[in-house]
Amino acid sequence: MNVVDAELVEMMSAVFAAHREQHEPGEAIAEVWDQLRELGLVRLTGSEESGGSGAGWAEAVELLRAAAWHGVRIPLAEHDLLACWLLEAVGLEVGDSRRTACLLDEHGVAGGVPWVTDAERVVVLWRDGAGYRVADVDTALLSVTPGRNRAGEPRDDVSVDVTILTGIPLPDNVIEQFTRRAALVRAVQVCAALDRILAMSVEHAGERTQFGRPLAKFQAVQNLVADIAAESALARAATDGALAEAIGSDWSSPHLDFLVAVARSCVGHAASVVVRNAHQVHGAIGTTREHRLHEFAMPALSWRSEYGSVAHWDEVLSDYALQMGAKGLWGLVTAAGD
């Protein structure tokens, strides 16, 4: 991926660090949202003509990583990378409203939609005959059943009568890109959470003593931390590979679906190992509300199952293997890595 200006990355981190010092995760969203808006970070990838900052996915990824690293839960990805991008893709006005996006089923229903109760408008997608349509809908016009994921973030059920919506026809390549974007967004966020868990585990093992020695001196603890580091690195490498292919091909690479599936599968399985091992390293203290480990473990476990479960992405990879055969799959792997 493109190298992002170090000062920009530092500024992003400083904003979230300062917010987290004063507020618990999920608190004062409006406050930090206004601050990010003033800094031009709410619509980081939006075109300048539509009021955005004109940055790219490389910068957006660093913003998501910074938020996840500091445990700040805010709908930046849903707003900028999904909802507002969809509006720009079909030429609709964006404005200043906070948004999220969802794909409705044949009954006009979507379950577990992120951040609806905190959004002013929802960009909805639905199948209409042979194609898809998109509409920007006032949240007040939707039937919303509030819910939460395991990390305590809003994940709401939405229903709407699509016959009352006009909507704009959506090209097939846009709906395909929406699903890829959404899947990679969660992979990026999980990786950031896993990296923070690794850092916390290394710090704890180095500072905590048992039987007169730091935990880091015990081989069993070393093995646990080494596995956390290895799984985190694998997840990040797979995700960065998919992102590089997406950005380099403007989301049109024929290998992208495969790489997204690889990233999501690796991330999903890594989360299991990292969270399990981290709790073993931290011992009983890691299970308490007072310790911050849960602020990263629970989001990692929640995010890995959104926009496709771990089982779903494993099945996608299994289908690739069956369709391509041994020689074909190897060719796909090597071509995707070029």
Task: Report on the architecture of this protein.
With 338 residues, the protein is an alpha+beta fold. The protein has 3 domains: 1-74, no CATH class; 92-170, Beta Barrel (Butyryl-CoA Dehydrogenase, subunit A, domain 2), CATH 2.40.110.10; 173-335, Butyryl-CoA Dehydrogenase, subunit A, domain 3 (Up-down Bundle), CATH 1.20.140. The protein has 9 helices and 9 strands. The chain has helices spanning 6-22, 29-38, 57-69, 76-89, 172-207, 219-248, 256-282, 293-303, 310-336, and strands at residues 99-103, 109-114, 121-128, 131-138, 143-145, 155-159, 168-170, 209-210, 213-214. The strands form 3 sheets. The chain has a 4-stranded mixed sheet. It has a 3-stranded antiparallel sheet with strand order 2-6-5, with no helix packed on it. Strand 8 and strand 9 (213-214) form a beta hairpin. The longest helix is centred in the middle third of the chain and has 36 residues, at 172-207. It is globular, with a radius of gyration of 21 Å. The two termini are 14 Å apart. The mean pLDDT is 93.
